[in-house]
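User: For documentation purposes, I need each entry recorded in a consistent format: the amino acid sequence on its own, followed directly by the corresponding structure tokens. There are two entries in this batch. Please keep commentary to a minimum and don't merge the entries.

Assistant: Recorded as requested. Entry 1:
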Amino acid sequence: MRAVACAGRRPARPFTRPAVSACLIAVVAALAMLGQGDFTAAPRYDGAGYAVLARSLASGTGYRAIDHPDRPRHAHFPPGYPVLLAFVWSVTGPSALAAHLVSCLCTVGATLAAWWWFRGIYPRDVALALGLALALNWAWARTGSAIQSEPLYMLLSQVTIVAAVRAAARGGVGRSLALGGLLAACLLTRQIAIGLVLAVLLDLCLRRRWSMALSAAVVSALVISPWLAWLVVVGGEQRTQAGLLFAGSSGLPGRIVSQAWFYLQRIPDQITGPVVEVATIIRRTAGVERLANLWALVFSGVVIAGWLVAVRRQRRRLAGLFPMMTLAWLLIWPYTEAGRFLIPLVPCLLIGAVEGMTGLVRWGKRSFGLGIPDRRVSFFAAVLILVLSLPYSGYSIITGRARARDAGNRAFDAACAWLAWHGDRPGPILTRHPGEVFLATGRQALEVSTSERRGEPDASPDAIARTIARHRVAYVLIDEDRYLGAPSGPLGRFVAERPQRVRKVWSSEPEGPAVAIYEVLPEHRAGAAGLLEPTSLTHRSFLRSRPFESQCPVVLVAMEAQLRQWCRAHLDWFVGPATNGLPCDHFVLDLVGPRFGGVLLLAGSGCS
């Protein structure tokens, strides 16, 4: 009888076991990131800003932009990811590899949490197919190893969704308090998490979990209140994300339309690869562009329809509320970040695509008599999405697209190397990306106003000249072609319109350089500020000079306000009448930092 019973039992499928499925998804996710990531890449763009803040926290100087000459307090990026980096680097030391590995761990955890969420919605085989589709997703895997805040936010958002579903189903004070803490952690990592917070609280209200929603909201508000107070105190000194939103508030109806069209085009690209982006921006032809836009409308329509279906079902409601709340916020946010905001939504995109395609397949069964069993419709849709995810992911792994993309930064890295080894003139660097310059060279850097940020005009040549004079800028680094669609910046126009103020000292190409370094000529560094300028000899070259070593230096200290008048009266006596003004070969005049009282140090080797 036992043999008969065993013979009639369905054979066990190993991949339906949770432990086996979890290991498979984790391994696939790790391999996808290993194939698509570049673990030697330095922090870039926003990642450099996070790294600067992490180094400031790790060194005990507080939440400051230590790459800027004034070392101001920072209020633009929330502190979640810099705090994580600071903790890691306090153990490993500043290491790009350690930061990449931490991002990978966060992404593997996020993938497993999303798969566990899928298991609560679909049968195990459908959840496994969606988990593999997520692990292999090109955008998810490529961003998953980057030094950016997205991997941490992906992990926190998926864990928050799982916690919210469990808390809503089982209740309990402890679960509501933990949920509030997770929501706060999401907000302190990415402020776009306001969409997730609203979705979770609305889902709890629709389930009539009023006390739980209130408890989670209160705990979340209490946890983030120090950051809100910091924004109030520090926000007036610099730009904040709220300030960027209000500064770009003009033309809101037109912006909503343009943002809606942008995200409609990018939704299919998050699953299939950047097909629409290539067809509509990089290699535009009229016929191909129309086909790509038609494909984007159809696919995005299917996904959005799937979200609407998901909202009606309690177990899947967050899969529709989370992306719709986030996109509602993104429609008024003035920046698209090249679609980066959609990456944490990829699990919801997969669910929306399954729900939408399931509806289409069922409609096809009724209309055309397709012979697909009802219980296999969702599995068929999930497998189809997995198949659609494979081509570009495989292409990206085989061709090393991430490493090829970072190769476009080689000219910039070479420029930073030149500044580190050959930039002998003291003073900060004026550049488009001060954080990257600081991390690569150890020299402080600053930027100027640019129209790339909504609501800000391009700095005029006169404004740039005043910035150079105020901070005594030594070099200007021009890099205007590092990313797709980069507009011409104010620094490039300044160099073109004021060539007499600068001298080119390095470029990546002899003609039409993509990256170039210009030395600010001494007479233009401090003339506008009424300061005397040192000779071309720098501290390092001055201290290395043999005459300085063999002769006793003469040092005079004067208050800054009195220096100009004092020099006019006594400089000839100081250097000797035979020199007719400036000293012979070795003369340094520099502003000593705040820790010496802001005085000016005048030093010379003496003259014969």
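Entry 2:
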Amino acid sequence: MTAIVKQLPEAGFFKNLADHRQPKAEPPTPALIPIGRTSFLNGVKSGKYPKPVKLGERTTAWRVEDIRALIGKLGGAA
């Protein structure tokens, strides 16, 4: 996971955090946090994971700074 963290920008937003099914036409994108989407969203609801930011009516993302902090808290190198 350290290699993925090094590829994250210092600031900005990230959309694909948890594993979720994608249409077959799209190439698979690896999840940054290795848990299912529903489990991740339940963790957001309970306060275990950071809350997302609404960027538009149908676009939700997480701050890269919050994700780096989460990975550091979970034991990875942020």
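Summary note for entry 2:
The two ends are 10 Å apart (CA to CA).
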